[in-house]
Structures are given as structure tokens and as C-alpha cells.
């Protein structure tokens, strides 16, 4: 990481010393150029967080108000008020990003809802109160796991168009602890419904999968399908603190 910053700093310094096209500021020396680079890096960092504009005068006033020898906050704000102000702004940025993704990936949500509405009418498909759907392909005879147990499984995850985004390899099982918030809610809810040895298909709506944001391999608002086989249940120990029921883990409807 340090090497990356160093390389970026040199590149920025070279650009500003020799080929700066900004006519509003003169970069006459090393301090000028470094200051320009720091401003550029700050803007790039906040842009990645969703901040696309600031009020220049207020920004520079806040910058100048910082005093490393004092612990006060600007505008007579204490630390709690300062944090609350920033939290409100971050919430606005997150809401803006969520609305943008909802507009861009709305078709995924519509396609998923249509699929699930049709799928729930099929023989053998069970729909839970949360909207999770599952189908038992072959029933096992072993115990059912609970929260904080570890499951040993084979699985294949696909999108609605059949694209495989993740799977085990051959007969090589993998283990997952059923710890709240460590797996998608669809898995946390589904596996305690399955006995050891069961083969099943899980149909997981987006809000029980990767939600409004998705991940690197899965677009926002994507409904997922998993073919799973619960090979083994390894009993775990519930912690003194933490969710005790599946319902406490699932998102509010």
C-alpha cells in the first residue's frame, strides 16, 4: 500500500510540476505541487465514497480551522454533534446510491419477483414467511442443524439465466458455520429446515441474498438459485450473547 501511494505521489508531482493545465493556481515549487497532489488525492478518496461536490469556501474554511494542538471541532460542535452531522450526510449519500442502483438494476428485481411468483405454484416448492423458497429433491435422515452449528455441503449457485457464479468442485465438500451475518440470510434460514443427507434446491430472493448492492460476481437485486446437499452437521455451541432465533437474523419485512 505504501509503495502505491509513493508511486502515485511521484506521478502526480511530475504532472503538476511540468504539465499542469490548471490556470487558477500557480505551482511554483515543491510545496505548491505537493499541496495540489494532496487536494487531488482527497477529492479522489471522497469521490469513491459518493461525494461528488463540495462548497469550496466552506471546505477550505474547515480545512484551515483544524488545529493539531486543540481538540475542539469547528462551528462550536462537540464530537457527538460533529459525528451526527457526518452520519446524516453519509445517509444521504447512501440513499442516493441506493436509488441509483434501484433504477439501474430494477429489471433484476422485477425478473426475480416474476420468477418467484411463478415458482411458488410448482408442486413441491415450499415458501416461507420471509419469501425464501425451497424444494426437497431427496430427504435425508440425519439431524437438522441449528444456529452456530457447522454444515458440510456440496453446492452450486446460479443466476436465473443459468450462469454459475459459485460452486464446490466435484465431491470436495466445504464447511460453513451457521453464524448470523457470516452467510447470506437465505442460507441461514434454509439449512435448519434440511436434515443431514438432504438434497434440495433453494430459491433465494434478493433481500435474503446480496441485496440492493450485490457483489463482484452478482448484480444488485439478483434472485439466486442453489442446488445443495447437506452432507454433515457438526454441532456447535451458542454464545452467551447474540441472536438465538432464525427470525432475529432475517431482515425486517
> Main beta sheet, described?
7 strands, antiparallel
How much of the sequence lies in strands comes to 15-25%
Structural class: alpha+beta
- Helix fraction? 25-40%
| Number of strand segments | 7
Rg, Å, rounded: 26 Å
Order of helices and strands: HHHHHEEEEEHEE
How far the N terminus sits from the C terminus, by CA atoms, comes to 41 Å
Assign an overall shape.
Answer: elongated
Give the overall average pLDDT: 82
Tally of helical segments:
6
Question: Main attributes?
Answer:
6 helices; 17% strand
Topology record:
Elements: H1 2-19, H2 30-48, H3 56-65, H4 79-104, H5 106-119, E1 125-127, E2 133-138, E3 150-158, E4 164-167, E5 174-177, H6 185-190, E6 199-204, E7 224-234
Antiparallel strand pairs: 1-2, 2-6, 3-4, 3-5, 3-7, 6-7
Explain what this protein looks like in three dimensions.
This protein is an alpha+beta fold and 253 residues long. Helices cover 37% and strands 17% of the residues. The chain contains 6 helices and 7 strands; from the N terminus they run H-H-H-H-H-E-E-E-E-E-H-E-E. Strands 1, 2, 3, 4, 5, 6 and 7 form a 7-stranded antiparallel β-sheet that branches. A hairpin with a 5-residue loop joins strand 3 (150-158) and strand 4 (164-167). Helix 1 crosses helix 2 (30-48). The protein is elongated, with a radius of gyration of 26 Å. The chain starts with a helix and ends in a 19-residue tail after the last strand.
Amino acid at each position: 500500500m505504501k509503495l502505491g501511494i509513493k508511486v502515485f505521489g511521484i506521478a502526480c508531482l511530475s504532472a503538476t510540476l511540468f504539465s499542469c493545465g490548471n490556470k487558477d493556481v500557480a505551482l511554483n515549487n515543491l510545496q505548491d505541487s505537493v499541496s495540489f497532489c494532496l487536494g487531488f488525492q482527497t477529492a479522489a478518496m471522497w469521490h469513491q465514497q459518493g461525494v461528488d461536490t463540495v462548497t469550496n469556501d466552506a471546505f477550505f474554511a474547515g480545512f484551515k480551522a483544524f488545529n493539531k494542538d486543540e481538540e475542539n471541532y469547528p462551528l462550536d460542535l462537540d464530537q457527538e454533534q460533529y459525528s451526527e452531522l457526518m452520519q446524516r450526510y453519509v445517509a444521504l449519500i447512501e440513499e442516493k446510491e441506493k436509488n441509483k442502483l434501484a433504477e439501474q438494476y430494477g429489471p433484476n428485481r422485477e425478473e426475480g419477483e416474476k420468477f418467484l411468483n411463478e415458482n411458488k405454484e410448482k408442486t413441491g416448492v415450499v415458501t416461507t414467511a420471509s419469501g425464501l423458497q425451497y424444494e426437497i429433491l431427496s430427504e435425508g435422515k440425519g439431524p437438522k442443524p441449528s444456529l452456530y452449528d457447522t454444515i458440510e455441503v456440496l453446492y452450486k449457485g446460479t443466476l436465473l439465466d443459468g450462469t454459475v457464479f459459485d460452486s464446490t468442485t466435484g465431491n470436495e465438500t466445504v464447511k460453513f458455520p451457521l453464524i448470523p451475518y457470516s452467510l447470506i440470510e437465505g442460507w441461514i434460514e434454509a439449512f435448519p429446515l434440511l436434515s443431514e443427507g438432504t438434497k434440495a434446491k433453494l430459491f433465494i430472493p434478493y433481500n435474503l441474498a446480496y441485496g440492493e448492492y450485490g457483489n463482484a460476481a452478482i448484480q444488485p437485486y439478483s434472485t439466486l438459485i442453489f442446488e445443495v446437499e447437506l452432507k454433515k452437521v457438526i454441532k456447535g455451541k451458542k454464545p452467551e450473547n447474540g441472536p438465538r432465533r432464525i427470525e432475529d437474523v432475517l431482515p425486517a419485512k
